[in-house]
Amino acid sequence: MSDGTAKTLFEKVWSDHLVKDETPETPAILYIDLHLIHEVTTPQAFTLLREKGLPVRRPDLTLGTMDHSTPTTPVRSFKDLAVVGEGAAKQVVAMQDNCKEFGLELHGFDSAHRGIVHVIGPELGATQPGKTIVCGDSHTSTHGAFGALAFGIGTTEVGHVLATQCLLQRKPKTLAIDVSGTLQSGVTAKDVILAIIGKIGVDGGTGFCIEFRGNAIEAMDMEARMTVCNMSIEAGARAGMIGPDETTLGYLLGRLRSPQGPDWEAAAKRWLTLRTDAGANFDKSVGIDGSTLQPMVTFGTNPGMVIPVTAEVPDANGDPSFRKALDYMQVTPGKPLSESSVDVVFVGSCTNSRISDLQQAADIIRGHKVAENVRMLVVPGSQQIKKEAEALGLDKIFQESGAEWRESGCSMCLGMNGDTVPSGQLSVSTSNRNFEGRQGIGARTILASPMTAAASAIEGRVADPRRYLQD
Amino acid sequence: MDAIRTLNSRTVVLPATDIDTDQIIPARFLTTTTREGLGADLFHDWRFTADGEENPEFVLNQPQSSGCSILVAGRNFGCGSSREHAPWALLDYGLQAVISTEIADIFRSNSLKNGFLPIVIDDVSHRWLLDNPGCEVTIDIEQSTLTLPGGKTVSYPIDDFARYCLLEGIDQLGFLQKHNTEIDQYEETRPWKP
Ligand code: SF4
Hints:
The structure holds two protein chains of two kinds.
Chain A: H1 9-16, E1 18-20, E2 28-31, E3 34-37, H2 43-52, E4 62-65, H3 86-102, E5 105-107, H4 117-123, E6 132-135, E7 149-152, H5 155-164, E8 166-169, E9 173-180, H6 189-200, E10 208-213, H7 215-218, H8 222-230, E11 239-241, H9 246-252, H10 261-272, E12 284-289, E13 296-298, E14 306-308, H11 320-329, E15 344-347, H12 355-365, E16 375-378, H13 383-391, H14 394-401, E17 404-405, E18 426-429, E19 444-447, H15 450-459
Parallel strand pairs in A: 3-4, 3-6, 4-5, 6-7, 9-10, 9-12, 10-11, 15-16, 15-18, 16-17, 18-19
Antiparallel strand pairs in A: 1-2, 2-8, 13-14
Helix pairs in contact in A: 2-5, 6-8, 12-14, 12-15
Chain B: E1 6-14, H1 21-24, H2 44-47, E2 70-73, H3 85-93, E3 97-100, H4 105-112, E4 117-120, H5 123-131, E5 136-140, E6 145-147, E7 153-155, H6 160-168, H7 172-177, H8 180-189
The complex binds iron/sulfur cluster.
């Protein structure tokens, strides 16, 4: 029952940031609290500023890193990092020059805090509940896990935010996705979001801001919540949010950019008021029973083509796009994916490269060997995570099993930094996109959780991680 | 951005659904610091074979596609990455509009800022266009209509502001800058600081 004043989390954050509300003729002017930037989608925006003679309005609300086109080859010192390709090298230099010229904080090669843009924002405590956060990158939805309104923008909009700290936006509709119940062991946040995309489709969230709710979401730690929000865009939704709670506060307390002392108390109190009020209305609602979910894997060329790891590949039923996807993937309807032999396993990306993801993969692979014909790459999401994992000895577990342990970056999530899956090879990947050629020309990608990826590395074929779980 | 009122062209049809921006312009071509020249690699992995030859089976490589500036594509065109390189590549190649039954949010927003027209129409008209490649159609921005051969018109939704910007060739940054005083005020009066 709605009494008219009850508001959703999204509505609260949205209305808090209106410089000017929308009218039928003009979109809203929305103020942006944090602008994350990286080397690939910003050079043309800085060129625009230069052409127009404009400064960056709020350098203090802008934070840069380098992740997409940077190499992840292990090095003793960052000075030894050789960027792969002339274009990528130019881009990296342009990023350094632009940040210097406009006075922006950049976590470049020499920073201990460099990492994937969606990993370092939360890690530094820059990502906070109630903020509006944008980045020229569609997985900006990740930051919504903290109760921020966070979404990806194009390069022209990057220019708008650099120059005015604002964006012109139409208010999206709201979609509640309620995940009830308790997840079974071996079922993770990645499986939950893959199942959601399978249910609502890759365009099921188009035009909506999602709020993920329910017992299964509330029971998740922040890293798991980030995995869920990260892939909102794979369902077509620009943003996905989760109401801030004690778990959120626990994660943020004491981080580099978190408020300190009395400021912390005030902020924490305000953040908890952002949760959706009882009785608030959503434009649409979807429910999922979390307790019945299985480990999930994709079999086609978009993240909505997904099945439980033990299930058989469905039939195309005369749909030519579906048929094309099955042909590209070289999978057969009626057969389980466990019959496909795997060439590459990638654990990493802004979806699954945080410490708990690496820990889960390590727990599966400990004491086993990566199958002979498999190349397994483990790429931490940031230099901080790399350090933390090494302190826990995870690097040794991976290396002893035969996996490669790398520097942080986007790596094999997208083939633009030297880490690619060779043409025709099958990759089980913890990243977020199984599009044709995403991991390299002709590469075939199966999306899965870190546990499923690790189990598949051991068996050299798509494998159910549950048989490796210790009670 | 140049003002645009109407667009008249024969269509070229790509019936696949969920064509993502990694297909429109693969990530390895994003290592550029300018907007120009991306058309050469538009739909690269569909247009070219593994040894770099033009793939004669891909529709854009066929003679009837030459001179076409309107693409008709399956549902959910432009999903995936936020790369504005996608509309830049389409425009640089010579395409100026896409017609589908659904177009992904970020791609649509990026397109409108560059004068590339994302046109969403009903299933029946779309089906007809998929089945009749190469037909001549006209997109009218002012009326928000698409005229099919034979004169049948179909209306499509477009945000009033986006239409105004297209018709006048308006740069949205200029519009935002006119609100500088309001932005200053907002920064000063909000109760908490980011
Ligand atoms: S890890 Fe992949 S999805 Fe995430 S920001 Fe990097 S390229 Fe994008």
